[in-house]
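Anyone? Bumping this.
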Amino acid sequence: MSVGEISDGDFAEFAARELGGLVRLAMMLTGDRELARDLVQDVMLKVQSRWSRVAAADSPERYVKTMVVNAHLSWRRRWSVRHMVVAYSEQMLDAPTPDHAASIVDHDDIWQRLATLPRQQRAVLVLRYYERLTDTEIAEVLGCAVGTVRGYASRALASLRLGLATEVDLAKEERR
Amino acid sequence: MNVEELLVDTFAAHEQAAPDPVALLRDLPKRRRRRSRMRMTVSGTVAAIAVVALGGTWVARIGHTPPHVTAGAAARSASQGATGGALAAQGAVISEADRSGAGDFGGPLLGGGRYNLADDLGKIVVVDYWASWCKPCQVQLPQLDSVYRDYRSYGVDVVGVDFKDQRGSAQTFATENDISFPIVVDQGGEALLGQLPVAGIPLTVLVDQQGRIAAVYSGEVAPSDITGAITTLLSEG
């Protein structure tokens, strides 16, 4: 095999261009910096080994993002071993009570609530509200029906609303 | 603010916590190295080598290993019964008896004209394969320029080989970083030193005063390692 067969130039260009977006997507999916890093590392190694196939895709960027999502969804073992979900944060209630109960709900709270969701539900929320994909596009990424996507989204949002409502009620109780 | 709006804000707020893509880019080959095992070839014959990288190099699958790309690894290769195939330890040089010719290396220069290695016979030549899209190369090239400025009066030349790159991007990078050594344009990946394949960049090769390959470093190499090798070669006279 000659040097001329090397195609890593294209791959390296792709990696340099897309890696930032991929690690951010992985961060949103996993909620964990180290897991995100490992996830993208694993995916990029696969991408490199099958670069010709990836490069031939209509959208290599979307192809690889789909790989990241699917790798995350199938990463059960490492996820369960390395990631402990905090179902409810006592720290949130121990924190000083603000003037308005609703303002307790900040980004960190939502972030923690996201960690309690099933991964498919979280993935749908990430793809819809972070990647700004349509439900049809999300269905293509996940390889499921659009109705399934909407079901995941609906349940995920309901869980978050319920969690937030409960939290606000508890905060109000604390203030009384 | 409803949940949907909170989600958008939350995701945006956590973008900063994502791992540094540049660090990940550099670390990726190292992880690959841990996953794969480099096979050394006997007599430089064809072998499907797993992707191997040292020090932050993107390395493609290569069909054969250099005839004897070794230095500190020479002893290891010999002890393993292999005649070559190892990559040099950074900073080490190949023993004189084991060096092979760098061949008829040359090509068009980025700034115009042509470079021929033969014209540098009698000098130590540091040949650095790089590209503007290669992150480790972006770090290494300015460092090599410092080496060039410090050592050229001692009979040391540095030549860059812009490997499979866009000429305009290379020119911009060289200008912005004030690179003073000549750069050979090699968009086809054909500017080879002897039988040495370019399996990944950065790849830094030292050619001794007799036009022989004296060291091959794959991946980022510290300037001190290069100057150390140069010193060794200068001491050979």
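Late reply, but here is one note on the structure posted above: Chain A touches chain B through 45 residues (CB under 8 Å).
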